[in-house]
UniProtKB/TrEMBL annotation:
Keywords: Membrane, Transmembrane, Transmembrane helix. The keyword Membrane applies. This is Stage II sporulation protein M. The lineage of its organism: Bacteria, Bacillati, Armatimonadota, Fimbriimonadia, Fimbriimonadales. It holds the Pfam family SpoIIM. The chain crosses the membrane at residues 105-125, 171-191, 198-220, 226-246, 258-279, 291-312. InterPro entries: SpoIIM-like (IPR002798). The keyword Transmembrane applies. PANTHER family: SLR1478 PROTEIN.
Length: 320
């Protein structure tokens, strides 16, 4: 091989392939159909040049140059297509909803524990007000029973949104994660405490004839927020169950298997809390919005979220 002649003859193709690689580095969509055909042709030809140089030349620098160029072109040509944000979001939603359905027994158990405690604590607070006083701080009880919260300006609403967005997801994550170290008892305790708080508050509001005001004030943000608590509780119960009843598996293996779904459930609960934060910050406690409007929004949320959890991705093969 006359190396100088070979380089002079083939170098234009190498430069052209390099230029196409530069243009297609981010995505091949930047190349036209003709450019893509030329890219493939040049890739094949330069691959042949590399094979010829490897067998007939001792020029290590030339071999390295062609090897790098062919490897770069191969990586661009055969790399997996990048998911768009929309596709990534759709896949994340599908994973979340399928995991919730797969772990529906723990979802129902978590909901039963939370709402069951609320239903039991309401009549208990009626019969034993002293117990209710221990559960519900007096300042909070007084604030709610007045049926009127101070008006919030835009700055205060933004501040409360920031607080809810940072605090509530953290509580949801703790509710689920604490199960691994307590065999699920920590999760049961947190769900029961929150359910009891809601039940006692409902009893107090019923006593002063403002139960409707309570639900109109908490449900607009409460639909996603309480859903987040229940989903995080389901994650904790799943982890606790894996430790208490691992079946024929070792506890570590059972915990690992449950942990994969628990992570998805905890992530889902955090997202639900984040969705609730701006609603709570700007809408639920906005005194300028009538309770009837808040109640209508809450009903609409319930319908839409139920349709999402029940119907979304039903025709898609479940993610294993």
């Amino acid at each position: 091989m006359n190396e100088a002649t070979f380089v002079d003859r083939r170098e234009p193709d190498w430069k052209q392939l390099t230029a196409l690689c530069d243009r297609g580095e981010v995505t091949l969509k930047t190349l036209s159909r003709e450019d893509l055909k030329e890219f493939v042709r040049l890739y094949r030809n330069v691959s042949g040049d590399l094979a010829a140089v490897r067998t007939s030349s001792t020029n290590a620098a030339l071999v390295q140059f062609l090897n790098d160029l062919v490897a770069r072109a191969y990586g661009i040509l055969y790399r997996a297509p990048r998911n768009t944000f929309g596709k990534a979001l759709s896949q994340a939603m599908l994973t979340a909803v399928q995991t919730v359905r797969r772990r529906k027994a723990f979802i129902f158990a978590s909901a039963a524990l939370f709402f069951g405690t609320a239903l039991l604590s309401a009549p208990l607070a009626e019969a034993r007000p002293d117990i209710g006083d221990r559960v519900l701080p007096k300042f909070l009880s007084d604030q709610w029973t007045k049926g009127q919260f101070p008006d919030r300006g835009a700055g205060q609403s933004m501040m409360m949104w920031s607080f809810y967005a940072s605090n509530n997801p953290r509580v949801a994550l703790i509710t689920g994660a604490v199960a691994a170290g307590t065999f699920g008892l920590g999760t049961v305790t947190i769900l029961s405490e929150n359910g009891m708080l809601l039940g006692v508050l409902a009893a107090r509001m019923a006593d002063v004839g403002k139960l409707g005001y309570l639900f109109a004030s908490i449900l607009p943000h409460g639909v996603p927020e309480l859903s987040g608590i229940i989903v995080s509780g389901a994650a904790g119960l799943a982890l606790g169950w894996a430790l208490v009843c691992p079946g024929r598996r070792r506890r570590g293996l059972a915990l690992r298997d449950a942990g994969a779904d628990a992570i998805v459930l905890l992530s889902t609960s955090a997202v639900l809390m984040l969705i609730a934060a701006p609603i709570e910050g700007f809408f639920s406690f906005n005194q300028g919005i009538p309770s009837s409007v808040k109640a209508a929004v809450a009903v609409l949320e319930i319908v839409l979220w139920t349709a999402f959890w029940v119907g979304y991705g039903n025709r898609v093969q479940p993610v294993s």
